[in-house]
Design brief:
- Chain B: GO terms for molecular function: symporter activity.
- Chain B: It comes from Terasakiispira papahanaumokuakeensis.
- The complex is a heterodimer of chains A (91) and B (597).
- Chain A is mainly alpha-helical.
- In chain A, 81% of the residues lie in helices and 4% in strands.
- Chain A is built from three helices and two strands.
- In chain A, helix 1 packs antiparallel against helix 3.
- Chain A is elongated, with a radius of gyration of 19 Å.
- Chain B has a domain of 352 residues: Sodium/glucose cotransporter (Up-down Bundle).
- Classes of the chains: A mainly alpha (91), B mainly alpha (597).
Amino acid sequence: MSTHQSDTQQQQATAYWKENLRLIAGYLVVWFLASYGAGILFVDQLNEIRFFGFKLGFWFAQQGSIYTFLILIIMYARSMNKLDEKYDVHE
Amino acid sequence: MDVQVLTYLFVGASFALYIGIAIWSRAGSTKEFYVAGGGVPPMANGMATAADWMSAASFISMAGLLAYLGYDGSVYLMGWTGGYLLLAMLLAPYLRKFGKFTVPDFVGDRYYSNVARTVAVICVIFVSFTYVAGQMRGVGIVFSRFLEVDINMGVIIGMAIVFVYSVMGGMKGITYTQVAQYCVLIVAYLVPAIFLSIMMTGHILPQTGLGATAVVDGADSGQFILDRLDGLLTELGFGEYTEGKKATIDVFFITAALMCGTAGLPHVIVRFFTVPKVRDARISAGYALFFIALLYTTAPAIGVFARTNIIESVNEVAYKDAPAWFHNWEATGLIAWVDKNGDGKIQMRGGAPFVGKPIFAGGTLEGGEVKGQWGERTVTNALTDNASEVYVDRDILVLANPEIGNLPGWVIALMAAGGVAAALSTAAGLLLVIASAISHDLVKKTINPNISEKAELNVARLAQAVAILVAGYFGINPPGFVAQVVAFAFGLAAASFFPVIIMGIFYKRMNREGAIAGMVVGLVFTFSYIVYTKFINPDPSIWWFGISPEGIGSLGMILNFVVAFAVSRFTPPPPAEIQALVESIRIPRGAGEAIDH
């Protein structure tokens, strides 16, 4: 393998990793807001709002946060599959 | 058919299934024994992870815990699910790419040190054993309640079953039995929940039933079920169900400790070594969470339905007219009643009726026990001075649900099979992690690197067998601290493994010295705080920043990160080949199957 080729690969790998980190940061923000935010820190404020028979903060703490986690994992797995192809690092 | 016969039938059939799978999936190599040959499809792995993850405690105790804690129980719901996103994004894909067999394997290789590996092995054994003893006890309890055998006999039967399929099949046998066990346990959990939901709210889905109006006549009709429970509880002097009593900072720290602990638990992490590809590792965390969420979003509904149900069917009812389940569970000692005001009626009120768990006068059931004025079993505990008269053990909520809701006999039999499946699957997964830490990390990688594969496989089987015996011993003679320590396994995992693995992947400059210092400080700090605040000086007013021992693992984790970072700045960077290793695990290509080495 020539040095040039290996350099390009190196750059690709670095760019891939940076984009991955950006994705992770974004998803972690939503993860934090849905659980620690809505379910814990702001639960009293959200409990003033009704969502069907639930107080909204309580719903987030016992139901909503779990649904959010699930959606986030599926979205992350899909974005990463695309990213793997884009940078040609897939298996 | 009689409930007892049905129960034997259901549990017996499920055992036959597990043994059949074990014979079909015998392990022939160490790779099959440790990581099921690295060929488990992601969806099957998700189910196996869910069964591995959801223990007897999740199945039997969680809804009861939620029913009594109300909003405060949310820490368990969020804490035991939120970690899967961390696994999917921060750990699983990279550890799969790394492609070895165990967690200490990663720690030892990434930090180029057998000291780090040995520290990791000790953490694994410590965390897993505290956990597994509770599981064996859970098997015993389920057996004794449903099959009417002695608790110890139940533990021995459970040990024998686990022995057959885990020693024979290793990870391969365990994985495919766990898939079957998941199916059994989730059906057993959902069926009574759906019955209850229809009965109480008219909704088929417990998840929406929880937000629906209660099916009742009279003044309460048209009221939301949660509002109704809040009202009932407030009237009786308990706190509101939907409001918390714990300090916000404590809720925050406990949730964080459980989430990061989940992501750091060796028996969970190792499951992601078994899938064929890196992309499978990511999505199989998603499958795992989906299968777990089916139970975890149902549990809060069961908690609310059961709490409402119990209050309505027991409160202010004369003891002699109390429903049959009340007397059945009183006979097992999990319900107790003291008639403080002498009116012969059962009063449910806020606060504990007496100090501690019930101690019945006259000892055992058979041994001449003392009956009170109304025929109730007399307790000798010191009474409290509130109006509360009933003790209901939290653990019976789920198991008693079918009886409380008057569900058909086969539902009760199904619950028994489900409870056994939950306990067995988790125990098997934990025991495998212990066995592989000993045979692979200690014997093969540290003591005798020249050992042949066949000999290593035999050591693994032997270690597995010994681990089962030790776990069984603890199940029969549970040391008082075990039950309390189980919850702390998470804090310890969060304070030790989680930071070390994260930094190993995301911070290339992290070196041997930093990792070992971080792990030791995190573990020692968390362990000392727990021991001190829980056993030596159990006084909440001395808690640092108001953080309970359950939540302290989060602080231990922060300490671990800080110490590791600081130490690594003052010590030499890791060698070039380790830095190259870190770069290679960040890229999916070239993972192949889990490699022997």
